[in-house]
Amino acid sequence: MSIDFNDGKWLNEPAHWQATETGLILTTDEKTDFWRETHYGFTRDSGHFLAFPTTDSFTAQIRVRGEFRTLYDQAGLMVRIDERRWVKTGVEFTDGEAYLSTVVTDGKSDWSVAQPFRELEDFRIRVTVANGAMRIQASRDGSFWPLLRLAPFPAADHYEVGPTACTPERSGLTVRFCEFSIGPAITTDLHDLS
Hints:
Elements (H helix, E strand, L loop, with lengths): L8 E3 L4 E4 L3 E5 L6 E3 L6 E3 L2 E6 L4 E9 L7 E9 L2 E10 L2 E10 L1 E7 L7 E9 L2 E7 L7 E6 L7 E7 L7 E10 L11
Antiparallel strand pairs: 1-6, 2-3, 3-16, 4-5, 6-15, 7-12, 7-16, 8-9, 8-15, 9-10, 10-11, 12-13, 13-14
Protein name: DUF1349 domain-containing protein
Keywords: Plasmid
């Protein structure tokens, strides 16, 4: 089911954004981030997140476009239960390059990065939540979806899911989101990359 971006509810609404039925453009505010404790010792819950309610199992996917150039520039999808239990996944700029990044947070944050493909200024991210597990896949073309991460994630009666973007070191990253959908959980075999 395609989503109208105007129907979402902001957590930390950015000063500059525009939504249509088919797309969302936002520009990040200064020093925005989502993180809990691990390594750095701080907790931040200031990133931009446009939330849409879901049921206890679902698949959501979105197309993300932007010019990620500064340390920790990031954008993608967030799945959230509350401020202590959430996941953000998408692109993140670190060590001079853009990576596909996932932060799984259940009390404390856990960060992983991968580079199944290097061109990350236009990509798609897909998240499936079902039965206490989260499957994260990424795609360049919307057809081939390699696995990025499989992680436990707390089962809940409902979640919020939607686009997220943060710039912990600056402001002014413009990100374009489109092709956002939420539907029943895709339960294909883990090695089915379609």
